[in-house]
Design a protein that fits this description.
Length: 131
């Protein structure tokens, strides 16, 4: 009986440790007026010192990443090792003037001291790295 309890405890402990080795982020889709393109902002818990547009994803040159669709953006994040967890929609404004934003929660399994945000840059992060 003691062995069974020890095995169950060890299994629960390993599950708990496994859950602690995840990083999470939220990406939000912003439609571009009069365009089929999509821009994505990202929140991975960083302190926001500037406007939301400074949270747009950018490439290594600091240029805004523009995606063909929501799925294009999700595929981009998946190539960086992020997995889809959940999606929800937030509607703001009044009935005739409302806007909806799609939020996706993603996670990435982390090994050791791996930087889960490697390969991801926002306009704000890019500007700070140039200083």
């Amino acid at each position: 009986m003691k062995k069974l309890i020890m095995i169950v405890m060890a299994a629960l402990f390993s599950i708990t440790l496994h859950a602690q080795n995840r990083a999470y982020c939220e990406i939000v889709e912003h439609s571009i007026p009069f365009s089929k393109d999509t821009k994505i902002t990202i929140d991975f818990g960083q302190k926001r010192e500037k406007a939301i547009r400074q949270q747009l994803l950018v490439d290594e040159n600091g240029e805004n990443l523009v995606f063909n669709s929501k799925i294009d953006a999700l595929n981009y994040m998946n190539k960086l090792g992020w997995e889809f967890l959940q999606a929800y929609t937030v509607v703001s404004g009044s009935d005739g003037d409302s806007k909806s934003y799609i939020h996706w929660l993603l996670y990435k399994e982390i090994k050791g001291d791996e930087d889960p945000y490697k390969g991801i840059s926002t306009k704000e992060i890019h500007e700070k790295s140039k200083k």
